[in-house]
Design goal:
alpha+beta, 5-stranded mixed sheet, 12 helices, about 65% helix, elongated
């Protein structure tokens, strides 16, 4: 319950400050009529009247609303009280605002500021007793005990608050460290599984290649030996698939339930990509198409997809794009648009160009991207031709 009250107070600091001051303000308002009947004042000081009483009380209580600025509040209340003393006005119930502001300084500020505020409060009480009729040392001592008690209460609350904040910070740090260690352990385990997967697949594929070569040589001369080799290939392949499924299944433990297992797109889907793009685009294919590995086809597809997305995001209204695929000694992918080019705003959190460079670099290629002369933007990627296995 108290946690909810504190959370509400932090969200509505001004309203919470008003509610904290309301009881003392109500007390001062109720004592206004008895104050008006005191003629002359009991201490022999200046008489303010009801209007002056309410105005001075408002000056003393109003700063307490800003509890998030304890030093400013304490200074304002102390100055008003000092002016009241200079004007020879007797203490009012609203002067308790000094003690409330003192508690706030001890609770929110450093120990040095708390000591300074405590000394100022003691000085104010001494000055008030100097003007009091028949003041005694016992009265000063009793008042000092009251002030010091409030001051110590604020210090204790400050210490308690800092202690709880330290506990929360340590708990958050421990939770972050625990999560980080869990991620590191998971990453290490996945790396180990990846090495095992590589060893298993490499070994079994090597056996299958050797058996396939043997079957090819024995096919014309020894059919029984060829059949045996084919059976060994089948057996080894099934064992490799089973082991790979077991290991990869561990890597997929954290995948979402809706993971898509459809085949990855390639060059055959480029035309559909260009036609369905939100940017009006044309596709031109030059040279003699060659059969490329699926990974390289996927890299080309993603490069074109990202380039068209950038054209849509940064090209401006009415932008059009051209996609060119040239087969030659190297596979050249060029995506150009007639958009804003160098005038287009840059996205500070974009990673599209970085991703394209990584895909191109994976196959030993090179990529450039930048504004074109005369306007527009160009993405040019050159990948070595890799024959499909």
């Amino acid at each position: 319950m108290f946690g909810k009250v504190r959370a509400w107070s932090r969200r509505h600091e001004r309203l919470a400050g008003v509610l904290r001051v309301a009881p003392l303000a109500t007390l001062c308002a109720l004592l206004a009529i008895p104050y008006a009947t005191i003629t002359p004042p009991t201490g022999g000081g200046a008489y303010l009247g009801v209007a002056g009483y309410l105005g001075l009380s408002a000056l003393l209580l109003a700063p307490l609303v800003w509890q998030d600025r304890p030093l400013t509040v304490f200074s304002a209340v102390s100055l008003v009280s000092f002016g009241q003393w200079l004007a020879d006005v007797d203490p009012l119930p609203a002067n308790l605002a000094v003690l409330i502001a003192l508690w706030a300084v001890a609770y929110r500020c450093s120990f040095a500021w708390a000591v300074a505020a405590g000394l100022v409060a003691e000085l104010g009480m001494f000055l008030a007793l100097v003007n009091w009729y028949a003041a005694t040392f016992g009265m000063f001592f009793s008042g000092s005990i009251f002030v010091v008690t409030i001051w110590l209460t604020g210090l204790y609350a400050n210490t308690r608050r800092r202690y709880l904040e330290g506990l929360e910070e340590r708990a958050e740090r421990a939770e972050r460290e625990r999560d980080q260690q869990a991620r590191m352990a998971a990453a290490a385990e996945r790396a180990r599984i990846a090495r095992e997967l590589h060893d298993v697949v490499a070994h079994n594929v090597s056996v299958m290649v050797v058996q396939a070569d043997g079957a090819g040589y024995a096919l014309d001369s020894d059919l029984d030996q060829a059949r045996l080799a084919v059976r060994n290939i089948s057996k080894t392949g099934r064992a490799a698939l089973a082991e790979m499924r077991r290991l990869v299944g561990v890597l997929r433990d954290n995948e979402a339930a809706g993971t898509d297992y459809t085949p990855q797109p390639g060059l055959g889907q480029l035309e559909d990509l260009v036609r369905g793009s939100a940017v009006p685009a044309r596709l031109r294919v030059g040279g003699e198409p060659a059969e490329l590995p699926e990974g390289q086809q996927l890299a080309v597809y993603r490069i074109v997809q990202e380039a068209l997305t950038n054209a849509l995001k940064h090209g401006g209204p009415g932008v059009r794009a051209d996609v060119e695929i040239d087969y030659g000694p190297d596979l050249v992918v060029r995506v150009t648009d007639d958009g804003r080019g160098a005038a287009a705003p840059r996205s500070p959190d974009g990673h599209g160009l970085i991703g394209m460079r990584e895909r191109v670099g994976m196959y030993g290629g090179a990529m450039s991207a930048g504004p074109r002369q005369g306007g527009g933007f160009e993405v040019l990627a050159r990948l070595p031709m890799v024959k499909a296995a």
